[in-house]
């Protein structure tokens, strides 16, 4: 785990990220807050590409909690069976849809606690929804962010909660809204787990990673 980078270095890093991609977007396809919740819940231990492939047709016919309940669990499974852990995820989607209909009038709540009370929705999922739909600067720490944060010194931490706190505490507030997207994309396409593309990295000269590649 690298040491925590200095304020001015972090500001320069995110200035470069912003210049390269001013409005980074999450890669999960959705049409409203509900389909975003479902897509993120389905993405656990799965790729965004795989989830998008499964949900593209699903969301055309079930884009609200009530429509999902009307569809039913078995038909839902038919759409998402290519996704890992699909049976358990289908059960959770049906349960959370029922709760949204019964307790929230079919609307997705926008507090972290309320979101996390839904089956299959953890802190990371709640943060993704708060950030992507309501533009709240919540930081959803996944494996990419955890790796980038600890390799580079941008937001080091022993666990995801510590990394989330390091982002909130150390990244300047004007970059907070898009911070987790920039870090995810950097980890997904440049600072990859096995073969980081350090030779083409925007922040190579600022990063503390000791095993840089050419």
Strands, helices and their partners?
Elements: H1 7-20, H2 33-42, H3 48-61, H4 65-71, H5 73-80, H6 86-104, H7 112-116, H8 123-134, H9 143-152, H10 160-170, H11 176-189
Helix pairs in contact: 2-8, 4-6, 5-6, 9-11
Annotated CATH topology of the largest domain? Endonuclease III, domain 1
Rg from alpha-carbon coordinates: 18 Å
Classify the helix fraction into a percent range: 55-70%
Tally of discrete structural domains:
2
By DSSP (H or I, 4+ residues per run), the number of helices equals: 11
Principal-axes shape call = elongated
Q: Give a count of the beta strands, DSSP E runs of length 2 or more.
A: 0
- Look at the structure and name the CATH superfamily of the largest domain: Hypothetical protein, domain 2
For this structure, what is the CATH class of the largest domain? Mainly Alpha
Instruction: Report the end-to-end length measured between terminal Cα atoms.
Output: 21 Å
H/E order of the elements?
HHHHHHHHHHH
Named at the architecture level, the CATH assignment of the largest domain is: Orthogonal Bundle
Low-confidence stretches: none
**Biggest sheet features:** none
Helix/strand-derived category reads: mainly alpha
Query: What is the average of the pLDDT values?
Result: 96
Strand content: under 5%
